[in-house]
Amino acid sequence: MWQPEPLQLAPIALGALAYARRAGNLARRGRPVPLRRQAWFVAGLALLAVALATPIDPIGEERLFWVHMVQHLLTGDLAAYCVVKGLTGPLLRPLLALPFAGRLRVLAHPLVALPLWALTLCAWHLPPLYEAALVHPALHALQHTLFFLSGALMWAAVLSPLPGPAWFGNGAKVAYVLAVRTIGAALANVFIWADRPLYDWYGTPLSDQVTGGAIMFTEGSLVTLLVIAWLFLEWMQESPTPARPAPRLRPDAALARPARSSGARDRSA
Questions:
Q1: Which of 87, 92, 97, 183 has its CA 20 to 30 A from that of 215?
Q2: 137-146 pLDDT, tens per residue?
C-alpha cells in the first residue's frame, strides 16, 4: 500500500511556509509579490508533491523505468522551472544575507550552471549510481535533491530572478536553452537506441526504457519551444520602437511657401 513519507513532504511544506511568510512581510511594506509569481511558485511545489509524494514514487522505484523518468523530469525540470519563475530579488534577499550565501550566486552563472546541471543529469543516470539510489533511500533522496537544485540553478540563469551577466541577453539565452536540450536529447537517445536494458533493477522489457527515453525527448522539445517563444516575446517588448520619419514636403509646396510670405510682406508695406 502506498504511504507518503513525511520526510518527502517536509521540505515542500517548509518552502511554502517560508515563501508565504516573506511574501506577507513584503506586502505589509507596500511591495507585494505579483500574483502570477506566487502562482508559479505554488505550481512548482505542487509538481514536487506529485513527483515525490504520490504513487509515482514507489512505481518508479520498483517497477517501471519510464515512470521513474517522469518523476525525474517533474523534479529536476518542470518543478525547478516553476519555483524559480516564482522568485524575485526581494524574496531572496534574506537568503542572500546568510553567511557565504552571496558567494553561492556564482552557481547560477550560465557558464557554471550549465556544466553543473549536465554533470548532475548524466552522472546520476550511469547504471552504478542509478541502481545504488534505488537501493539506498538516503542516496535516492540526495539524487532528487541534486536534480532539483541543479535544475533550479540552470533555469535561474535564464529566468534571472537576480541580475545576471550583462552579456547574457535573450540571444545568448536562446543558445543556452538549445545547449541544455541538446544534452538532454543526447541522453534520451541513449535510452531510445540502446540494444539492451541499461538497468538490471527493473527486469522489464526494452520497450520500457525506450518509452522513458521518448518521454524525456518529447518533454524537452516542448519545454524548449515554449521557453524560446517566451524569450522571443521578451525580446520584442524590449526592442525600441523605431522613430517615425518627419513628413517630407512636396517640391511645389516648398516653393509655394516663400511666394505667399513674400506677398504678405508686400501688402504690409
A1: 87
A2: 889 989 999 9
Does a structural domain hold residue 20? yes
Distance (Å, whole) CA 243 – CA 247: 12
DSSP string, 159-210: H-SS---TT--HHHHHHHHHHHHHHHHHHHHHHHH-SS-S-TTT---HHHHH
pLDDT per residue as tens digits for the range 179-198? 999 999 999 999 999 999 99
Global pTM? 0.86
Count up the domains in the chain and report the number. Answer: 1
Residue 257 covered by a domain: no
User: What is the residue range of 36's domain?
Assistant: 6-92+104-242
- One-letter amino acid at 242 equals P
Q: Which three cell numbers stand for residue 227?
A: 521557453
* Cell numbers placing 204: 522489464
